[in-house]
Write a structure and sequence with these properties.
By secondary structure, the protein is of the alpha+beta class. Helix content is 29%, strand content 28%. The chain has 2 domains: 4-118, D-amino Acid Aminotransferase, Chain A, domain 1; 125-281, D-amino Acid Aminotransferase, Chain A, domain 2. The protein has helices spanning 24-28, 46-59, 68-81, 125-129, 152-163, 207-218, 230-234, 266-281, and strands at residues 4-7, 10-13, 31-39, 42-43, 87-94, 111-118, 131-137, 168-173, 176-180, 184-188, 194-196, 223-225, 238-243, 247-254, 257-258. The longest helix is centred in the C-terminal third of the chain and has 16 residues, at 266-281. It binds N-(5'-phosphopyridoxyl)-D-alanine (PDD).
Amino acid sequence: MQGTVYVNGAWVPAEAARVSVFDRGFLFADGIYEVAAVLDGRLVDNDAHLDRLERSLAAIELKLPISRGELAAAQKEIVARNGLREGLVYMQVTRGPADRDFAFPADAHPTLVLFAQPKQMTDAPAARTGVSAISTPDLRWARRDIKSVALLPQVLAKQQARRAGCAEAFMVEDGMITEGASSNVFILTRDGEIATRQLSRDILAGCTRAAVLALAREQGLRIAERPFSVAEAQRAAECWITSATTFVMPVVALDDAPIGDGRPGPMAQRLRALYFEAARAAQ
Ligand code: PDD
């Protein structure tokens, strides 16, 4: 917790940043969020993140308290004020403070908070070795396409992963992997098909997922948007996850079983490099 934070139009030091205990984000997790990466001091794929923020807001009937253009300007300003070169910008909108009552209050003013977090991402040591994952039941609600701040199932899944010495938890429903606790999951089958679960209300429409799929299509690679099981992922040639905070991250073991030769594979490395190239070229 450091640097300068944006709270409802004010720029405040992190230690002084406050929202009300009556905020509905705190009481009901009545809010949504976004996380956009920053590379070389510039936001990556930010239009896609703002589009999804607007979709999440509309889905819970919440209005952004400022315009989209003003929000984009605040994002740029938070990068500048914090001297952020590499890391992420976090944004959260909640229904604001009100007397505790489940249904929407008539007079609430949404709370908008932004903060910046430095993180070494391009040269992440984990990308050189790959990371391990566990599988765990998907305990989440039926609208995972909304980037809701109600993240307790993901918090518990990630903690379970950490205890097992792993970086990610693949969530499983009806025998199939939905997605990672904070990422989308891809495999490369042994006959050369890239598979990732199709979009629906069962998963978050990852911005990095979409960018990586577009790059793979440009390369003429074979893609199938379909579900797959833990067993199929374990016998795949490669596996990787995508998110704004990891980009393309090779997964080299799942539930203690090595995937491929247990090292980052050429396809994951290629897509990771292509993603950086495209992200930098777009700036
Ligand atoms: N999470 N699926 C889930 C459940 C996620 O929480 C995320 C991202 C993704 C990947 O989406 P994107 O590529 O747009 O980052 C998929 C962010 C990084 C987080 O909660 O920190």
